[in-house]
Every structure is written in structure tokens, then in C-alpha cells.
Amino acid sequence: MPTSRTGGQLLVDALQTHGADIAFGVPGESYLAVLDALHDSSIRFIINRQEGGAAFMAEAYGKLTGRPGICFVTRGPGATNASIGVHTAHQDSTPMILFIGQVGNDFVEREAFQEIDYRRMFGTMTKWVAQIDRADRVPEYVARAFQVATSGRPGPVVLALPEDMLSASADVPDARPYKPVQAAPAPSQIAELRAMLAAAQRPVVILGGTVWTSEACDDIRRFAEANALPVACAFRFQDLLDNRHAHYIGDVGIGINPKLAARIKAADLVIAIGPRLGEMTTGGYTLLDAPNPRQGLIHIHAGADELGRVYQANLMINSGMPQIAAALAGMEPVDAGAWRHTVAEARADLQAWQAEPPIFKDKQARLNLWQVVQALKAELPADTIITNGAGNFATWAHRFWLYGGLRTQLAPTSGAMGYGAPAAVAAGIIEKHAGRQRSVVNFAGDGDFLMNGQELATAVQFQSGVLFIVFNNGTYGTIRMHQEREFPARVSGTSLHNPDFAALAKAYGAHGEAVDTTEDFLPALRRARAHIVSTGMPALIELRYDADLITPNASLETIRNTALNART
Fold first, then answer.
1. Which string of DSSP letters, residue by residue, matches 31-93?
2. pLDDT at 114 over 70
3. Which of 175, 186, 200, 209 to pair with 464, CA 20 to 30 A apart?
4. d(CA 120, CA 105)
5. Dihedral pair phi/psi, residue 69, rounded to 5°
6. What angle do CA 406, 409, 410 make, to 5 degrees?
7. Are 302 and 320 in contact (CB under 8 A)?
8. What is the pLDDT of residues 222-272, one digit of tens each?
9. For 467-524, how does the pLDDT look when each residue is reduced to its tens digit (9 = 90+)?
10. How far apart are the first and last CA of the chain?
């Protein structure tokens, strides 16, 4: 028989029913009853230093586990700070549930202290947003939140929690654990896909999106091998196929290999399995013409609303990734004689694209970032988790790192700065909580890191043994690059005066070093890793390099001079 429980206790009990094991957040007086219930629960509450970092950590949890990341914040400023993580979960199709303390029902609609209407605030960036006004409906709302966040195209849910509801009591039973629902392809659709593939001459596959499992990735690999298909991965979903695999031909996103872009444009059939085909993956909607691509297009996506949204594909299949992958793995292979040779050609294009850029020799650079990445590749295991936020520095992770398979990449397709550091801290906590020992490395720009670098305190407090690599060039590099292209030699608003990042790391209780030359990096890396292994605590290496080396392809000087010459 049910026993009387407060709304706060009902909420925590519901989270445990649905398998939540970790929650992230910043405490607030608006949800004290939840904090009290967490005290005696099996859920580990990770205390963050800012709600933006907490929301990013919950989003990273959702990416890494496939289960909803749980985040608690207080009303008003807490909710607005957390909104960046909600937006990221929305654009990245990540399951996440944000719980927000709310003013009591007796104060509502008076613009009470920190009061916000969250239905209006979060309405366009969530799958569902609601307020639980009665304690007896907590199990119902929480069950629906888990169901909505994980079914179809995953995404974020926001639930507001009035203070008086959390302290009120109710006799109500718990709900049953949620079960995600995904569509599956019809046999006739698989037959049509096979016929289109058999008729093709230059097919290419693009993988992306979420709802993937290791089994689904294995099935897609078998499908690609059986049909001799070249496989690219969409923007920041590079971990869906081991990058060392012979059929992997590169990433389709910002800074795409020009030869890969040309190959996609010249394809007569693009099989897009999972990606949204948004701006970043389509090169600003240029790789595929909207709404009618020149190529034949098969678009497979977990969300029915995404199909036909921008592109009118020849074949649209609403399916979860495990379902479509299993069907494709079981499909009778076609005769791939017309394109079998393209796999090796595309792979060779990728390997040439990953070779050392000449810019470091041309500029006689003291610190060669390409060699830094090569040292990391040589020293770190293949299953290392790499995280990054947004900025030109991320090119070194996207273009030159080789991702070892599913859930080795945590990066925001939303382009949010400040994501990588808290995502790495979360990954370290999750790995440790699960009893695994995978290495976690964060690639961060100087501007990017300082947006959530205070979560180093969280890493130290919860012994998250993360390695932070901070690319310090004293500028908001991406904006400076565009600035030199559009307004050459007129630097405005992009220069940074940075702290000593190595000293900052030490102040937090982490290991910290600064590197100015290529020769100094490998010894520093080995010392940092030894510290992580021996203490379980984080380490940071600051890379101090010339801002002129803005991309692997061009210096700021070259970009500026090209723009100036075009004006004369």
C-alpha cells in the first residue's frame, strides 16, 4: 500500500524507479525538499559551481550513456544559466531532464522573487515543458518526462517544481520504469533502399545523430563492409565508426576536407543514417541543394518531424538506429563493382588530409600543434574520450584525432562555447562511477575554457581524473579569423588577457604545466598522465602558441593579406 510522501520524496523515488544514478546541479532554496530526499537516496548528486556547467554535464551524461541526464537548478537566474545546456541537448538530440525549483502556487503570476514562466521560456527548445502543481501527480509527470526525452528523436524536457508542491504530501504509488519507443523500417522500405543502392554508381553513407548503441554501430559497419560503401560521419558524430576502419573517409562538418565535399557533391546516392542534415553537416546547405538535392537521397531519422523538413528525399525512413542498422545488416548485399574502388580512394584522401600541415614549417613555429596531437595519439588508448567546446582549436580534435568508436566524442553540434570542460569532468565522474578506467581529455581554447573553467573545482572535489589541454593564443580565434576576412587589419573586441592557466589549475588543486615548444610537450604529457594515474585527480597542460597560426590551412596574416588584396 502507498504511504504518504512529500513531493520532494516522490520525485527522488521516481528518479530511482527510472534508473537515475547521478544528478548534476547547483543547490537552491526553491527545491530544499528534493535535496533532503537525495540525502538518503542511491542517487549521487554532483555539486557544480554554475548552472551552465551543471546543464552541460547532464547533457554529456545523456550523450555518453543514452539515458536522460538529470539536472537540478533553482528558479530565475539558475534556470537562465542552465538554458545553454538545454539548447545544446535540443540541437544535439540528447536525452536530458532539467528540474527547476519554482515559486509556490500561492505566489504565482505576481512576478514573485525570481519567478519565470518556464513554458514560455523553454517552449521552443524542449520536447516538453510543464509544471507539477500537485504532489500526487509527480510519478505521472516524471514517467512522461523520461518517456518523451528518450523516444523518437531524443531531446530535453523541463519540469518546474513549485515549492509548496515539494513540501506537500500524497499517498500515490510509483510508476513503472520507462521504456523508450522507436520506429522501425518496413520490409518494403528496405527493399526500396536496396534497389536504389543497386542502381547507384557513386554512393556514399553519412552517419550521425543519437539513439545509437554499440550493436547498432557494429551492424552498420557490417552493412558498409558487405556493400563496399565509403562512410563519413556528420559534424561532431565522428565516433559512430572507428576512424581507423578502412571504410571511414572523414567528417562532414566545419572545415571539411575539400575532396570529401567534392565526393559528396558528385555522389549519385547519399544514404544519410541518423543525421538531421542541418547547416553544419551540409556546409550551409551547399553539399545538398534544398529542397531537392541533385543527388539521390535516402534520409533515415528517429524523428518523423525531421524527415522532409529541409530536404525532400527520394526515400524517407522513420526509424531508430538499432532498428535500421539491424535491418541493413541483414539485407542481401548488392553488386558493388561500380564503386568498390572508391573506398580506398576516399580513404587515401582522408590520410592525405590528416598529414602535417606545412604552415608550421613555413612560420617556423616553436610549438607544432600537429605534433602535439600525434603525441597524444601515441600515448593515449584508442578508447579515450575526447571533449571539446567551440572554436578554431577544435579543428585539431576534428581533423587529426582518430576516434576509437561509439561514445569517445563529446562535443556540441549547437556550437556552444564552454561545453568541453564540464563535459570532460562529467565523463570522468561517469567512468569512475561505472568502475571503468577510460581516459578523458578535454581540448579547450582559452576563451572556451574560461567560460566554465570553474568546474575544475568540481573535478577536484569529485576526483575526476581529466586531462585538460588548453590552447592559449590570447584571442577569440574563430571571431578574429572572420574579422580579418571581413574587416582586415581592424582588430576589435577579440583580444584576450589570460591568466596563467597552469597556475590556475594548481590553485584549484590540480596538476598544471605550461608548454611553449614542441619538445616540451611529450614530457609534460607523461607527467600529467602519471599524476592522474597516481592520484585520480585532474591535470592541465597549457599550450602557448602564436595566434597567427589560426588554422591548419592558413595564418591570420594570409587571411588578412588576401582580404586586403581583394579590396585593391
1. GHHHHHHHHTSS-EEEEPSSHHHHHHHHHHHHHHHSS-EEEEE-STHHHHHHHHHHHHHHHHT
2. no
3. 209
4. 17
5. -75, 135
6. 125
7. yes
8. 999 999 999 999 999 999 999 999 999 999 998 999 999 999 999 999 999
9. 999 999 999 989 999 998 999 889 999 899 999 999 999 999 999 999 999 999 999 9
10. 83
In angstroms, the CA 393 to CA 551 distance is: 8
Distance, in Å, from the CA atom of 467 to the CA atom of 138, rounded to the nearest integer, reads: 40
- d(C-alpha 352, C-alpha 350), whole Å: 5
Nearest to 84 by CA among 460, 412, 402: 412
DSSP 312: -
CB-based contacts of 413, cutoff 8 Å, min separation 6: 91, 92, 235, 236, 237, 278, 280
pLDDT tens column, 36-59: 999 999 999 999 999 999 999 999
Task: Please report the domains of the chain, with CATH numbers, ordered by start residue.
Answer: 5-170 (3.40.50.970), 187-352 (3.40.50.1220), 354-566 (3.40.50.970)
- Residue 321 has which C-alpha cell? 538506429
pLDDT of residue 106: 73
Which ranges of 184-320 does DSSP label H, i.e. alpha helix?
187-198, 214-226, 258-266
Question: pLDDT tens, 264-321?
Answer: 999 999 999 999 999 999 999 999 999 999 999 999 999 999 999 999 999 999 999 9
Reading across the β-sheet that carries 315-318, which strands appear in turn? Answer: 248-252, 231-234, 203-207, 269-273, 296-301, 315-318
What residues form DSSP beta bridges with 100? 73, 160
Report the C-alpha gap between 158 and 99 in whole angstroms: 6
- Alpha-carbon separation of residue 362 from 43, 210, 366, 545 (angstroms): 54, 41, 11, 15
Residue from 511, 480, 508, 505 nearest 493 by CA = 480
pLDDT tens profile 420-457: 999 999 999 999 999 988 999 999 999 999 999 999 99
C-alpha separations of 11 from 20, 74, 161, 355 in Å: 11, 16, 10, 53
Which residue type does 371 have?
A: Q
Q: Cell 572523414 identifies what position?
A: 250
